[in-house]
Structures are given as C-alpha cells and as structure tokens.
UniProtKB/TrEMBL annotation:
Species this chain originates from: Gossypium hirsutum (Upland cotton)
Keywords for this protein: Chloroplast, Membrane, Plastid, Transit peptide, Transmembrane, Transmembrane helix
Protein name (database record): Protein RETICULATA-RELATED 4, chloroplastic
Compartments, record wording: Plastid, Chloroplast membrane
Span list, region Disordered: 1-20, 35-86
Residue stretches spanning the membrane: none
Amino acid sequence: MSAATSLFTPFPPFSPLPKTTSKFSTTFRLRLPSPITTIRHRKHSPFPTFSTLPGGGNNSAGGGGNNDNGKGKGGSGGGDENAGDENRKEAMIVLAEAGRSMETLPTDLADAIQAGKVPGSVIDRFLGLEKSDLMRWLMQFDGFKERLLADDLFFAKVFIECGVGIFTKTAAEYERRRENFFKELEIVFADVVMAIIADFMLVYLPAPTVSLQPSLAASAGVISKFFHGCPDNAFQVALHGTSYSLLQRLGAVMRNGAKLFAVGTTSSLVGTAATNALINAKKAVDKSSVDEIENVPILSTSVAYGVYMAISSNLRYQVLAGVIEQRVLEPLLHQHKFLLSTICFAIRTGNTYLGSLLWVDYARLVGIQKPQEEENPVLVS
C-alpha cells in the first residue's frame, strides 16, 4: 500500500520543476547575443543574402512594402521598430570601434542611421570605401554613394561594361567598314560614344542601392510615393528591417524601363543624326558615294532602340545585377574579389554579345534593318 501511494503522489519529493525553470532561463539568456556578435555574423555569413526573397523574405521584419523611414508597411510594426533599433545600435558600435562620430559622416547617411534604415555592415563598407581617394570622391555624388554602399564593386562593373563596350563596338565597326574604317572615323566615333553612354546607364540604373533618400512631402501624389518606395533593382536584397512587396519590385522594372527608353531613344537620336550629317557631308564632297551610302532612318531607329533598351536590356541587366551577381556570386565569392571581378567580366561580356544577337533579330522584326545590312552587326547591349 505504501508503494502504491508513492506512485500516485501528485507532487513527488524530487519535482522536476526547478530543473525545468533553470533550463528555460538559461535558454532565454543564450538567445540574447550582444550587438557586436550580431554585426560580425551578418557581415561574414552569406545566409542572409539567400534568405531574402522577392517580396520580403527573412529580412522583412513587419510585412510587405517599404516606406521612407526604413520600416516595412503593414503588420503591427513591433518587429519593424526592433529591426530599426538593432540597425541603429549596430551602426553606433561600428562607429565607436572605428573612432568615428556621427558628425564626421555625410548628412544623409547620419540621418539614415538615426532612422534605423541601415545596419552596421553598410557603415563598415562606407568606412572601408573612404580609405580610397577615388571612392571618397565618387561618394560625394548621391547616386554613386547609394550604389557603392550596396556593392563595393559597382565602379569596377562600370569599368568592365564600358571597357567591353568600347572594344566590341570598335571591333564591330571595323569588321563592318573594313577599308572605309579610317575614312569614316567620325561616324565610328559618334556610334561608339553613344553606345558607351547607353552602356553606362545600363549598369547605373538597374544597380542595387542602399536608399538614403529623405521622405517625400505629405502633399506628394500617390504615384510619386509609390515609385519613391520602389527599389532600384527589382531583385535586389532588402536590408535588415526593410522589405519590398511584389508590386514595388514590378514598379522598379517599370520605372527603369521608362528611364532606359528615354536614354536609348535620345542616344540613338543623337547618334543617327550625327551619322547622317557626316554621311551627307561626305556625299557633298564625293559625288561618287551618293549611291553607295544610305542615310539611317532617324526617328524609327531611335524609337526602336529605346523600346529595345526598355524591355530586353532592362530585364537582362536587372537579372544580371540583382540575381546573378548580388544573390549568387557575391555570397559565394565575397572573400575573393579578384575571382568575383573576373567572373563578372566574363558574364557581362557574354551579356553584351547576347544583346547584339537579340538586337539583330529585333531590328529585322520591326523592319528598321534589312537582312543584307546585318551580316556584320554592331554590338549593342
């Protein structure tokens, strides 16, 4: 009877309750790492990059959308406030370790820190870029600063794209003109310059950015507010505490498409007009070349090139910068910058060649070029 009573005693002499309480308390303490540990983990680990998916992902602290103070729209907002506080603490710790104060930073970057919009890894990258005289000068311009803070190889990619463009377009011009290359050097120069301008914009506009833009005025229109909150690259990784909805990412494609249409149309308009002017001048001097060289249709070619850049070039460079480079290559080769640059060079060269092939097909489809005129087409992006 005594043994049976002891088996059904509701509170045995050795209750596990104290042990459970102690275990829970220990677990709770271990889940509160110091801010310094958080910074180092997020700086070196590639996993946050992979976990951020279009529309928010794990970097989304409080729902879809992205407003101007760096906190996501929707939800209760508690998680967003915590993310902003974490970003602010991380940034201040990085500044303290570097012996810097807020007063030594650019005003827009200091305001972003106060608003909790940028994590410590962005401040760490800024301090590293400042050590280079060239990068420090480039970061005086807001557009370059926002892109360099998101990708410290941005300037190298601009150099790669424009360098590849100069070489391939000059080679294509020579292949097309052969013995007339030096006789038509002015036309070649105009074509190459316009193409390089387009190449630069194709790298600049779709590049991922760290937005340091101030909030829009309350009187701004709905459309302005919407596009203001869109990322510069539809596929870019959102910073900690920030998220983009699927609609905002689609808005990035639309906004960059409109800009690239204007760039493509304008550059082609100037290039074809200059080319026709040189052709006409040559015809006036050399009457025998009147029937040999035909003027390029200005308006149709310019509009067609603008549409091509807005659709084909826009989508290809969005995927190249946001998916292939930032989400795949950067996490894998973050500690091997030379190898990363080499692979980017190869991929961007292939993308330029692909662009030339697609342009030939498109130009034939819309009727601005005849097949016999495209045996040696000029490479475009």
